[in-house]
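Standup notes, structure subgroup. Blocker cleared on the zinc ion input:
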Amino acid sequence: MNKKFKLTSARKAVLEFLEDSSFHQTAAEIHQGLVERLPSLNLSTVYRSLDYLIARQLVSVADIGRGSPVYEIVSDQPHHHLVCLNCDHVYDLDHATVEYLFNQIEADQSFEIRTNHLVLYGICESCQSEE
Ligand SMILES: [Zn+2]
Ligand SMILES: [Zn+2]
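Run returned:
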């Protein structure tokens, strides 16, 4: 992480937790994961820390159909997901796959896309074969 921001200990802890976890976490999961180490940390502080980190584009937030939004560290290369509506499996989608579409939209609409975590819903291959 080469970006320099003033991070309070709660923000730092949330950021480190997301850096260490390889997958999406809800705010409640982040809180649960940190509260043992930081007993004074409450859920609203976790939300405030996440808002701060999202505003600085260090963390992304997405709805992947889990009922609560999920948070993830922003990497240099954006990534996206396919979520199966039947089995709830979350598949990764390379940015290269949607980059062409993004570039096309930006050129056609003179629109600068800031989405770094696209989620598409559908039915996965193994569920299709069950139907
Ligand atoms: Zn993701
Ligand atoms: Zn499926």
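Discussed briefly. Helices lie at 9-20, 27-34, 43-55, 95-109, 125-130.
Next: hand off to the docking folks.
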